[in-house]
Amino acid sequence: MIEITTTRHNHLIDPSLHIWGWEIPVYLFLGGMVAGMMLISGYFLFSGRYKETNCSCYYLPIMSFLLLSLGMFALFLDLEHKPYVWRLYTTFQITSPMSWGSWILVLVYPILFASMLMRPHRLLLEKIPHVKKWHEYLHSKPMLIKYLGVVSMFFGAAIGMYTGVLLSSLGARPLWSSSILWLLFLVSGLSSAAAFVHLIAKNVYERELLAKSDNAFLILELFIITVFLIGLSSNSDVHAKALDLLMTGKYAAVFWVFVIGMGIVIPLFIQLLAVNHKIHHTPIAPIMVIIGGLILRFVIVAAGQYSHWYVLTN
Length: 314
Prior knowledge:
Distance between the termini: 17 Å
Helix content: over 70%
CATH class: Mainly Alpha
Largest sheet: none
Order of helices and strands: HHHHHHHHHHHH
Number of strands: 0
CATH architecture: Up-down Bundle
CATH superfamily: Formate dehydrogenase/DMSO reductase domain
Number of domains: 1
């Protein structure tokens, strides 16, 4: 059986023990949200929306930088041997999702920093000559900004997929043994990011665009969850029992009420009315989407830990 080296306890003897606390779901959620924000910001750079003075692409890299750092700190708190975390970066294991994710996250920081310099703080422009030169050079080369947008979207998608691949690579957990889990986490992260930007965007066009985009993401997320559940039901008996944890078992109430109902269906209904101008845009729907995305990670992680082969075959 495969275990991630970040865990605090040995879960093989007593599968009822929880390996992960709140840190891993928070890390997965923030990583997915940052992935979505990088995709949105990158798209705005590529499409030329950076020419708008109130484009969200100017402040999304800063928020992504802070949220990603917070997620990395949550992951650090979960490490059993914290002083040796640096050893992860002394090698690269091509078959290890953790190794891929670690190096991708390292590469993301300079991309976010470069995006932040699209509009650096006045003090940075005045005090650091290289920042001013980069800022002027970047804005003198529109094609370079497009390339930065493409790179941002690429690495955003990589982070979003990685958060799901990290779990699905663990064959010891039947609930996570799905080839579609990476897509679910990617789309969920995009939905949470679109909701967040819709909530804080200063540009009216962007708020409208992201509300419409989030509706598409929510519909796609519902479809992917359906396929995910069908995949579990059509697999082995152990996978079917793992499915029961979400359908009728101990995690069913939270899954159906908070993830499906509050996190997808209700905000989708509200936002469909809003984009069709039946009601005014409200912050309630995007807040529900964000909370639902966070609870999805908690449910998948918790139920996945409980869906141990030992528990479900005895």
